[in-house]
Amino acid sequence: MIEAIKKFANGYRAVGIQATMGMEGHGFIATIMKDGRVIGQAKDYGDGGSTHLDFPLREDVDALLSYARSLFPDYQYATDDMFFGALIDYELAIKKLRTAAKKKLMQADETKVDQHGVAESYVSWNMTDTPENRARILAQQPNTVFLNDELNDWEELKAPRKPRR
After folding, report:
1. Which domain of life does the protein's organism represent (predicted)?
2. For the chain, which end, N or C, has fewer CB atoms within 10 Å of the first or last residue's CB respectively?
C-alpha cells in the first residue's frame, strides 16, 4: 500500500495540511515538498475553481504539471487538481492509519485497489503490535504482510515556516 502511494507521489509530499470550506465544498491549503525540499504551496479554497499553485520557481511548476499530465493522459485540464486531490487524500489517510496502528495490527486488503494501485481498505486485528500477537496471526495466515511495518517506513514530515526561494 505505502509503496504504491510512494510510486504515485513520485517524491511529492503535502505537509501542514489545513482544511478549508468554500461554497462548492471542502478544500485544503498545504505546503508541497519534492524529494524533501519545499517547493511551494497548493491552495484549493473549495470554491469550484482550480488549485492555486504558489511556487517561487517556474521549473517546479512545470515539472509538477508535466508529471500530473503523465498520470492522467486522458484529461486535458485540471490534472494538477486531480493529482493534489489524491495526494492530500493519501496523506490524510496515512495519518489516520498511523494512529490506528498504535492500537492494533493491520494488513492492507489488496483485493480492491484504486486507479493508482493503492489498496482501498485494510483488515485489522484488535490486538497490540507485539511479537507474540504477530506470531499468532502468522501461524494462521503465514503470508500476512503487516501494514504497521509499511507505515513505519512513511516519514512523517512537518511543514517548515517558509518555502525556500
Report:
1. Bacteria
2. C
What residues contact residue 121 under an 8 Å CB cut-off, 6+ apart?
A: 109, 112
The whole-angstrom separation of Cα 56 and Cα 54 is 7
Q: All 3 cell numbers of residue 41?
A: 504551496
- CA–CA dist 2, 54 (Å, integer): 28
CA atoms within 13 A on the CB side of 11: 10
Query: Contact, 42 vs 84, CB < 8 A?
Result: yes
Q: What amino acid occupies position 120? A: E
Query: What global pTM score does this model have?
Result: 0.85
| Pair 50, 78: CB distance under 8 Å | yes
Q: Of 60, 59, 83, 130, whose CA–CA distance to 138 is shortest?
A: 130
Which amino acid, 65?
L
In contact, 12 and 31? CB cutoff 8 Å:
no
- pLDDT, position 162: 59
CB 108 within 8 A of CB 119: yes
Confidence of residue 165 (pLDDT cuts 50, 70, 90): low
Cell, residue 139: 501461524
